[in-house]
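User: Round two. Same drill as before: sequence, then structure, for each protein.

Assistant: Same drill it is. First protein:
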Amino acid sequence: MRIGNLDGRLVIIDATETRALDVATASGGRFGPDPQSVFERWTDFAGWAASADVVAGEEFDPIRLGPPVPRPPQVFGIGPNYRDHAQEAELDLPAEPMVFTKFPSSVTGPFAEVRLPSDRVDYEVELVVVIGKKGHAIPVERAWDHVAGLTVGQDVSERAVQFRDKPAQFSLGKSYPGFAPIGPALVTPDELPDRDRLQIGCRTGEETLQQGTTADMVFPVAELVARLSSVVTLLPGDVVFTGTPAGVGSVRSPRRYLSRGEVVESTIEGVGRIRTTFV
């Protein structure tokens, strides 16, 4: 199942991503139109949606899609969580996940224009996990039961703010307006042949910026959910940016930051593609 935010309304999207079924209309008001509200009733909704007639939906232009999770209660970011990225940054593999937040006001949609506040803005394509069931101290073997779905994200980072002093300001440097583009849809894990091994990457024009696999994660999705919930109560609609593979600009030689006018296309196998224009 793929669910989305079309013009601010909750929809189910077909496999070709060309038709969308309005949930409030199709369910006769059983579920409301607000894309964020569905996570509070995720189990009930998923049961209904499994038999919904998506083919009866309208054709749509993907440019109309907004963030599938427009107002997450909590947004978690994970520091170096890919082995190849830790290696390129000359960092030891972490014994525990390094956790920060991207403030929810930074969330934007899959085809957004994002203003560059400086000439030191970096890109980080990431698999984004969305929580569908509240939980605290979730055992790792039950962690996927608490996941509503997956989407594509960019953890855009202003490195001058992030590293201008000690300790580093990860959360502020990663929370300018539009610095958390996500989408195009939320894909339930059953849609994927191997939810823990997905190709992930981003490019601008003909230039490949990052290319990797989620199988390279130090802490896979289930372990991240379990470890986060050992401290924090995870809430329906929470968003977890799970880390990025090698290729980020700030550790290249020479460094490679984003320029005005660049369009970054981020993709994850089986999940989708987003396009972010930097202005």
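Second protein:
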Amino acid sequence: MSDTQHPYVGMWVTDDGYIRHELLPNGRYDEARGKRKSAYQGQYRLTGDHIDYVDDTGFTADGDFIDGVLYHAGMILRRE
């Protein structure tokens, strides 16, 4: 892990707070849903403003960061 942290690393949350994506500096993520902590976990890869997710079960998803907002699977997440 380098001393420089990617600007997208951190917590991203839907406006209602129900979905919370924590992008960890080691290339892993932890997604909470409602009161269920760690509902999904896996790896992510950033390519420019695009993110690809692969959860630990093999499910894949992606998203894009546009003007400081993460658009992922029909959801809008903002930095917490």
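Residues 23 and 77 are 12 Å apart (CA to CA).

User: Perfect.
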